[in-house]
Amino acid sequence: MQASFTLSYGQYPYMYNTYPFIQYEKNHLISPNNNHRFLPFFKKLDQLIFSGKGNIHILHIGGSHVQADIFSGRIRERFSTFFPGNKGSRGLVFPYRIANTNNPYNYVAGYTGKWESCKNTQHGTFCELGITGISATTKDTTASISLSLKTDYYQSYDFNRIRVFHKNDSNQFSIYPVDVDTNFYRIVNNMPNGYTDILFTGYYHSITLGFKQTDSLQWGFTLYGLQLENNDPGITYHAAGVNGAGTYSFIRCVLLTSQLRILKPDLVIFGLGINDAASKDFDGSVFERNYRKLIDSVLIANPDAAIILITNNDSFRKYKKKYYVNKNGESVQRIMLQIAKEKNISVWDFFSIMGGLGSMETWMNNGLGKKDRVHFSTPGYKLMGDLLFEAILKEYEIYLMHTYNKQK
User: Fold this and answer.
1) What's the topology of domain 89-231?
2) If residue 174 lies in a helix (H) or strand (E), which one and from where to where?
3) Is 341 helix (H, G, I), strand (E, B) or coil?
4) Which of 135, 266, 353, 367 is deepest in the core (most CB within 10 A)?
5) CA distances from 87 to 69, 82, 90, 140, 183 (A)
6) CATH number assigned to the domain with residue range 1-88+233-408, chosen from the 4 options 3.40.50.2300, 3.30.43.10, 3.40.50.1110, 3.40.50.170
7) Each residue's pLDDT expressed in tens, for the chain with a length of 408 residues
8) What are phi and psi of 183, to 5 degrees?
9) Helices (H), 151-305
C-alpha cells in the first residue's frame, strides 16, 4: 500500500509504502509541555512559503544513520521540494574520503597530498573538533580538496560562497580556489572565529581548494568542515554524522558551541543514542547528562532554536553468533521523554513507531533493515525520512490552523 500526506494550505503529496507492523498513529512529535519552541521556526517557514523570502537552517546530528546521508538526505529532499521556488543551499559537507570512510552519495569528494584525520569516536586521542565531529590536517603545500555536487540529484544545488571551518591559528596555510581567476573571487579571513569565507562572482557545482604557505611560520592546515551556500531563499539542511558516534563523542567536540553560534540553526535534530545504548553496561545517568550538555550548547548558540530528539530504533546485540534484543532502547526512550519535558523540547518516538521491542526483526524480514539488526536498508532509511518529515509537517499544520483561527 501507499500513503500520502498533504499540507492544509496546498497539497504536496509524497507517496511512500505502508506496512501493517508500523504504528502510523504514533507518527507525530511529542512535546510534553507545548510546541512553543517551534514558533520562531514556523514563522520563518511561513515567510519563506508565502513571501518567498528568507533562509532556514536545519542541523541533523547523528552517527552512521546520518553519515551516509540517506535518512537525512531524504528529509532534505522533502524540505527542498514540498513548495515551489524553495531552492536553498547544500550547506555543511566534509570530504569523508580523506578520513578513509564513506562519503554521502549526493556529492563527490576527493583530495591530494598527505593528510591525517581525527574523529570524535577515536578513544585515547585528543584533537580539536567541531560540528562535523571530524577533522583533517595537512602539512603539505601541494595538498588539495575537491568537491563536486551531483547535478543529477533531485535538485541541482550550486554555490557562490564557501565557508571553510578551520583551526583558529594564525599559522595556518592560506586557502584559495584552484583554477579560478582571482578577478572572480574574494577571500575574507575570520581567523578569530575559526573560518574563512570565499566569495565568488558566479555560481559553481564543483570546486578544488588548494593551500599556500605565505609566511615561514605557517605550519599546516586543519579542516573542520565546509559550508556551501548561495543567495537563494530556501531551506538548508545540514547533516553531521560520524559512524559509531554517541552523545559521548560529540561532547568531546570542544568547538561545537562556538561553531553552532556561527551556523545558528533554527532547528536541530539529534539522532544520537543507538551507540550509547549498544553496550550491556549502558549508564542512563551518563547518557542523560551528555544529552543535556548537547542541548545546552544549542540553546547557548540560539535560544530560539527548536530541538527534536529521535529515540533509538529497536536493535539487537550479537553474542556468540546469536542475536538478542537490546532492551536499552526502552531506557533511552524514557530518558528522552523526561529531558523533553524539562527542557521544553520535542521527541520523535521512532522506537514506538517502528513497533517497539523486537520490531527490528520484522523490518529486516521486510527488506527495510540490514542483517546486523541495527542499521537500515536504503528503502528503510528513506521511509524513516518520510515519516519524520510527515511528523514535522503535522506540527506545522497545527500551527497554521491555530494561526488562521486567531485571524478569523
Assistant:
1) Jelly Rolls (2.60.120)
2) strand 174-177
3) helix
4) 135
5) 19, 11, 9, 37, 27
6) 3.40.50.1110
7) 555 444 444 344 578 889 999 999 999 999 987 778 999 999 999 999 999 999 999 999 999 999 999 999 999 999 988 888 788 899 999 999 999 999 999 999 999 999 999 999 998 878 999 999 999 999 999 999 999 999 877 778 999 999 999 999 989 999 999 999 999 999 999 988 999 999 999 999 999 999 999 999 999 999 999 999 999 999 999 999 999 999 999 999 999 999 999 999 999 999 999 999 998 899 999 999 999 999 999 999 999 999 999 999 999 998 888 999 999 999 999 999 999 999 999 999 999 999 999 999 999 999 999 999 999 999 999 999 999 999 999 999 999 988 876 665
8) -75, -15
9) 247-251, 256-263, 284-301
Residue 387, classed as helix, strand or coil, is helix
Q: How many Å apart are CA 234 and CA 353, to the nearest integer?
A: 30
Q: How wide is the angle at C-alpha 237 spanned by C-alphas 195 and 167, nearest 5°?
A: 15
Residues of the chain with CATH 3.40.50.1110: 1-88+233-408
* CA 154 to mean position of chain CA atoms: 18
Instruction: Say which amino acid occupies 154.
Output: Y
